[in-house]
């Protein structure tokens, strides 16, 4: 087929694309400035799943609560126990879980005065994830603690994304033959796939119906995840600066998947002539099974999507009055 998906002129110099992955936000809560400096030094160069750390500081429980209200993306909190009061840190932990109801952020309590808050009592009473005395937290142990906490945080987010995706699929399945329900179905499946491959959660699914391809019309973004979520319903040409359109266009022209260290551009053309593209940002750690899963997704959803749209079009045509006479 000679029809290509063309999103824009191939003038790469005019684009401002950056594929750098966002850093993991780590909140340091301690009333001693030296602790902040030492922690940052010990974790300099830290990397997990291809992403570094974004250090956020709070020097009191009050500041910590303010930060946590504004930023729900904090991955890990290194939390001092004794600050304004002997139990200020414990109050922050309670605030995280019970006031703003954040169950994802990992909480690591650090104390220089373990007698003030006995470990056994704290673990029983508060929903924290680790408890360390400052004297035992060497640079090596701090690295291990943060690495483990981030892995847990990532897994929790993946489970939540998978749950949301499954919910959308279930809701869409109740009425699959409405246009909005078809797109909800695709969005739900896409979110589940994003959850399964963890670090490649920024996805764009572009569909071009048979009619659009043959008539030379515009394609559009049917579903998206991560930082691309707000692009759903828009034309790919309107958001080019946010992703690597060159390889996505190349996948359409070559009629095959294009894999680079930073991006995955998947292509599938259905038997009816519809073209479908899937763009994933940051699949540097994508394994062969991950790629096979993505390929299976693209083929299955593309076929399902077109079958559902065909059913909708057929039903709509059947309902139209013929020869000027109304049906019924």
What assembly state would you assign to the polypeptide chains in this entry? Answer: single chain
End-to-end separation? 42 Å
Strand content: 15-25%
Mean pLDDT: 77
**How would you spell out the order of helices and strands?**
EHEHEHEHEHHEHEHEEEH
Question: And the CATH topology of the largest domain?
Answer: Rossmann fold
Beta strand count? 10
Unreliable stretches, pLDDT < 50, 5 or more residues? 1-19, 209-217
CATH architecture of the largest domain: 3-Layer(aba) Sandwich
Amount of helix: 40-55%
Radius of gyration over alpha carbons?
25 Å
- Report the principal-axis shape: elongated
Describe it:
By secondary structure, the protein is an alpha/beta fold. The chain has two domains: 24-153, Rossmann fold, CATH 3.40.50; 194-313, Beta-Lactamase. It has helices at residues 33-42, 61-70, 88-99, 119-125, 139-173, 179-196, 210-215, 245-254, 288-319; strands spanning 24-29, 53-58, 76-80, 106-111, 130-133, 202-208, 220-224, 258-259, 263-269, 275-281. It has a five-stranded parallel beta sheet, with helices on both faces. The protein has a five-stranded antiparallel beta sheet with strand order 7-6-10-9-8, sandwiched between helices. Helix 2 runs parallel beside helix 3, helix 5 packs antiparallel against helix 6 and helix 6 (179-196) runs antiparallel to helix 9 (288-319). The longest helix is centred in the middle third of the chain and has 35 residues, at 139-173. It is elongated and about 80 Å long. The two termini are 42 Å apart.
